[in-house]
Amino acid sequence: MLDVIVIGMGAHGSAGLFHLAKKGLNVLGLEQFEQIHNNGSYHGLSRIIRMGLYEGDEYLPLATRSFQLWRELEKEYNEQILYMTGIINIGNKQSPIFKNTLSSAIKHNLDYKEMDNNEIMSSFPGFNLSSDLKGVYLKDGGFLDPEKAVKAHTQLAIKNEAKINYNEKVLSWNDKTSHIEILTTKTTYKTKKLVIAAGAWNINLFDIPGLPLSVVRQVVGWFPSKNKSLFDKNKFPVWILDDGKYHGYGFPEYGNDGLKIGIFNHLNEKIYPDKYSRTITPEDIKLLSNFSSHFKETGEGENYNTCMFTNTPDENFILDKHPSTENCIIVSCCSGHGFKFSSVIGEIISDLCQTEQTGYNIDLFKISRFL
Fold first, then answer.
1. pLDDT in tens, 175-210
2. What pLDDT, in 10s, does the model give residues 96-119?
3. Whole-structure pTM value
4. What is the CB neighbour count within 10 angstroms for residue 206?
């Protein structure tokens, strides 16, 4: 019998498997797709990491630890995953993006600089901002390469004697009291503990009636510039921008040509993960193209890509024991701001599987708030 099975080898499942394997447990990862794929929520070359946490103070210890663990992972994997560019959070003086970031930076003594629109455009000439916008620049910010991160966690998990079965979909699971039984498209497994970290597929696999998780179709695009120096990752930061109508985010040039632009929750189009359109529509292009007006000398967008956000109503994570069995850990660290924490979430998953508790305060993520 296995010690732990982890369903889903995306951001959090792969990190959990890695930490469990390092502790010497007999673990198996199950993934319905290939090792690296574009069917879920972690692909797309870049994910934001930051210390300016407008979501709340509870996330700060997790962010601090996540930076440490990403550096440790890079060293062990011997490849760069984390790129420190700085980050600037921009909005008008009433915007939570601006206000809460500034408050967090002051309260926690972060290395920051408050800037008006002219100061932002002078420091980072790629921006084209209206006079009502202000920003908080934080040195401790940048981006992660998500595909490299998942590869590192999965390959190092295998190095520590974990097993991973790809192209094997979980159909159901059942708590037998003495163990948990898992039925897949290929066979049946028995395990002492189960971790469900299946991203957009959590809604069905959690099997919790009335749980208010929703999945939203997300689209990003890259906007090349003839002046490539404007968005060079050594000169231009990661950014989050609330213009009063849309809450956008993006990255300097990396992987594809140009500035990467997305809008949180895009068109708020709720979908089912197994059957949603990946066709890029004129409406998708119009939304992102209009938002690109906040930047100078960007051309037409290209390399558009779709993925999914899995959201909770309060935009906080779910990280807890399953309400009907203590032997199952449910993980939905989501709502468009979870990837950066996956390194430390993996550590917490390992803690919960071994001792049923963790040294981190995860009360904010309890499932009971929805039931």
1. 999 999 999 999 999 999 999 999 999 999 999 999
2. 999 999 999 999 999 999 999 999
3. 0.97
4. 20
Residue spans of beta strands (DSSP E) within the chain:
2-7, 27-30, 47-50, 82-84, 87-91, 112-116, 134-138, 141-144, 163-165, 170-175, 180-184, 188-196, 214-223, 238-242, 247-251, 259-263, 302-311, 318-322, 325-332
Q: What is the DSSP string of 9-66?
A: -SHHHHHHHHHHHHTT--EEEE-SS-SS-SSSSS-SS-EEEES--TT-GGGHHHHHHH
Write the Ramachandran bin of 319: left for phi over 0, alpha for psi from -120 to 50, otherwise beta: beta
Vertex 338: Cα angle to 203 and 235 (nearest 5)? 145
Tokens coding 31 = 């993934």
Instruction: List domains and CATH numbers for the chain.
Output: 2-43+147-208+315-370 (3.50.50.60), 87-139+214-311 (3.30.9.10)
Check: CB of residue 77 under 8 Å from CB of residue 155. Answer: yes
Give me the helix-helix angle, 146-159 and 60-77, nearest 10°. 70
Structure tokens at 251: 């990255």
d(CA 331, CA 319): 5
The number of beta carbons lying within 10 Å of the beta carbon of residue 41 is 22
Four-point Cα dihedral 228, 232, 237, 238, nearest 10: 80
The residue written with tokens 């080898």 in the block is 9
Q: How large is the angle between the packed helices 146-159 and 11-22, nearest 10 degrees?
A: 30
Place of tokens 């455009």: 121
